[in-house]
Specification:
Length: 233
């Protein structure tokens, strides 16, 4: 399944290269809402919130009221997720807040993964409404808007978090926004690691690539290829 991506920054839809360099920006929201209305799922990310440099909260309901969205970006508490669900999100995405080992009670279970927090999210929001984001840069899990890494492989993160979410979102930051293709072998490894829905992103460039991933039982998020016109959507 192809999942179109809507990334928000500074009140615009944007596409960044490797999460840093601005490549494309749009403010014709209704056009893209109409373009994506045929899809069963659209991914909506508040990049300003993810990078801890602001929020596009006022825009989110404009999309969630018209599109079936899974929404993420800087979610730190269960209440953050509830607010997005109340705005019409179908599912909410948690990423950086799952890692760090800041809570001594969590460190007893795992030095880096916040397992008590993931269990609490499951209890308060429900497994079916949770997507856990496990993104990597240089082979390690990337957090805080991909500005920092923790000493954790994606396979380890997925294995430990398996019981508390409906789906995993994996972004290969090294190829994000480059349209150089997603590393298929990484998708194969992750697919063998979890029985949950697996969604991957990062460099996807063609419908053929989406089909190859689909044949593996993996869903694909596409952004740059869609907005640049390289992939029909």
């Amino acid at each position: 399944m192809l999942i179109p991506s809507i990334d928000l920054m500074n009140g615009q839809i944007v596409q960044l290269v490797q999460g840093e360099k601005l490549k494309l920006a749009f403010d014709d929201f209704d056009y893209w809402i109409d373009r994506f209305s045929k899809y069963p799922l659209v991914q909506l990310i508040d990049l300003d919130a993810a990078m801890r440099q602001g929020s596009n909260a006022d825009l989110i309901s404009r999309f969630t009221s018209k599109l079936p969205c899974q929404v993420g970006g800087g979610l730190k508490t269960a209440d953050d997720g509830k607010r997005l669900l109340d705005l019409g999100a179908k599912r909410v995405i948690y990423g950086s807040s799952l890692f760090g080992g800041d809570d001594p009670a969590d460190r007893k279970k795992h030095p880096i993964i916040n397992l008590n927090f993931s269990a609490a999210l499951n209890k308060e929001l429900g497994e079916d409404q949770l997507v856990f984001s496990v993104d990597t840069k240089n082979g390690k899990v990337a957090v805080k808007g991909w500005k920092e890494n923790v000493d954790l492989t994606p396979e380890e993160a997925v294995t430990w978090l398996e019981n508390d979410c409906a789906a995993f979102l994996y972004t290969h930051v090294d190829t994000e926004g480059t349209m150089q293709g997603f590393p298929i072998h990484v998708a194969a490894i992750l697919r063998s690691t979890t029985a949950k829905q697996l969604i991957v992103a990062g460099g996807i460039k063609s419908a053929e690539e989406v089909t190859e991933l689909d044949n593996m039982g993996v869903d694909a998020v596409a952004g740059m290829a869609v907005y640049s016109g390289a992939m029909e959507a």
